[in-house]
Fold each of these.
Amino acid sequence: MTGSQQASNAEASPVALVTGAAGGIGRRVVDRLAAQGMTVVAVDRSADASKELRSVPGRVTIVQGDVAVAADVERIVADTERDIGPIDYLVNAVGILRVGDVVDLPDADWEEMFAVNTGGVFRMIRAVVSRMVVRQRGAIVTVSSNAARTPRASMSAYSASKAAATMLAKCAALEVAKYGIRCNIVSPGSTRTEMLRVSWENQDRADATIAGVPDKFRLGIPLGRIAEPDDIVDAVEFLLSDRARHITMQELTVDGGATLGI
Ligand SMILES: NC(=O)c1ccc[n+]([C@@H]2O[C@H](COP(=O)([O-])OP(=O)(O)OC[C@H]3O[C@@H](n4cnc5c(N)ncnc54)[C@H](O)[C@@H]3O)[C@@H](O)[C@H]2O)c1
């Protein structure tokens, strides 16, 4: 595998593929699944991914690739199955955010958000599920957003791309249920990562986010805090685990009540 750090002694350990693995949430997913003893294939397009992930203890293989590129996705999944083992778990933690009102939004931003947030999830689910159905086992979690259900000013393309990803994941769940494969969604609200920092334009807007921003019709966060990545990863781990063996097609929102449970 190009640019990867090969895992060893992977025979007995389940294999998990994580996208957006160098990001704030993805990195903690990698940490936590590796700590469970899984062999983790950590996929990110960032050239810094190796730097971010090299220190994670456990069996971690770092792979540079772009989920918006069909050939990258097929290569990563095929190489993983050939060199490491059958993929038991997939976590789509990839995502990009470009803000801008509809009237100002460039075509390129619209297309890139759909290529990554929706297309990247579609391509990964397609490639992984086509192998899982043969083995009749597997679990998938897609990290979407509470913005998929709640209109947000200046976030139309992001919200629309996440709404599409959520529904794609639910439809895939329906198709693969007969094989015993589960497919669920975790939808975070504001979570302390690079994505949030950029959306706050590099300022600390935690207090305003928690209190709410009336002129943007944005409610606050009833539980009174910004999520940490681990809050999201707890939900991801649960939905991957056998404790959730009878749960599929579900969206678990982790936003401190910011979208009022709707
Ligand atoms: N942080 C939040 O407040 C928040 C809120 C709701 C939903 N989310 C969702 O949570 C998920 C994780 O977000 P995060 O906060 O960790 O963001 P992040 O920006 O910290 O990490 C995203 C990672 O995805 C990688 N990436 C981007 N495009 C890629 C591509 N085409 N191929 C492969 N890798 C790519 C980036 O390099 C980065 O490492 C995303 O789906 C995001 O939309 C985040």
Amino acid sequence: MEPLQYSVNCVESDCWDWDSYYEKHPPPRNQVQSGKRVARRIERFIESKGLTANSIADVGCGPATTIFDLARRMPRCDFRGYDSSRTILRMNRQKAEKLGLDNLHFHFTKLPAMAVRRRFSIVMCIATLHYVEDPRRAIRRLYSMVEPGGCLVFNYPNRAHRAAVIREAEHDPVVTRRFELVIRGGNLLSYSGIERKLGRRPRSFWLAVGEPASRVNPCVVIAK
Ligand SMILES: C[S@@+](CC[C@H](N)C(=O)[O-])C[C@H]1O[C@@H](n2cnc3c(N)ncnc32)[C@H](O)[C@@H]1O
């Protein structure tokens, strides 16, 4: 069985409260490594598609490992990290200032009702829709933030993911609390559901970057 690649090692019972979680825990090593892997994939994707990426938004950025990494390597690209945790946004701003990264900025927002009016070459949303009550509305909103010629990249909970979470939850009560929404099945998506909502057939992001598709961690790209 494939592991849930982006699960965080929660040890506190309050870890679903992201502000409190970030106050108490530095980003776990597996999340940092996973964020760096996402950065490499985004770079590969940009290269292979010959995209001109002038601006990249990371929604539900958390500690923003991916865009910190990319912002150093792509100094002419404008990076925006959005999150609903003011704690992590404050920490990220301090880190960006310390590193002198003036192409990287952070803003509060809460999916699904994001009030972001501008558009981006790439909008990504990784390991975040798992915590959002209305993911269909969220992906509509995210897609509206993509400029023509750009694309939206996101992963999401599906039925296979839910089954894997339920198995993990059997021996980890924190998983039960943290993924309560997924376990309830209230925010599951599918390829056909995404296509109905956005009017475009999603493609596997894994395949687009030359990696095997994952049933439990589907990640898609939708061009505009
Ligand atoms: C598991 S972390 C993922 C962080 C990062 N994308 C990564 O892959 O490492 C989920 C993030 O989503 C944020 N989040 C949860 N619900 C959200 C919402 N409704 N709108 C925006 N961000 C949200 C949390 O604050 C948290 O930082």
